[in-house]
Amino acid sequence: MGFITAGHGLQLNSTFGVGTVRRHHIGGTVDAAWVQINSNVNVSNAVGHGQNLSSSFNNNFTTGRPVQKIGASSGITFGTIQSTSAGHAGLINLIRTDAYSARGDSGGAVFTGNILMINPIVYGIVIGGLNPSGHGMIFGRATNIFAHPQFSDLSRY
What is the homologous superfamily of the domain 46-144 according to CATH? Predict the structure, then answer.
């Protein structure tokens, strides 16, 4: 059992929090790592106020669509999609938003922007912020991650 997070800053077989990085890829449309969790750790797909993320992915990205993300540093923030074909740090086909993001939020879930968090559906994971003030965030599409050969055989949850 494990989870997907951002791959930048991680190395294969290194310890990461509650587990060990077992798969890793940065390039093209993917910046991701799969962390195999230690056997003594309990996990869930709950975010925010305890709502479970849906096991389905949303790949319907349009400018102006609301999104939210949860990050280790800045918690839950909201924004809208600004671009559906952004580049960042040599990566392509990413999504740019105006959501606030802080250093340390990378790898956090980005999901549908319903403020009530009713049946949130995964869009992807935080890749990075756009400027030092934190305004603006780039995320990688979940569909691209799970289509990549390094991650395509993993269960979504």
Answer: Trypsin-like serine proteases (2.40.10.10)
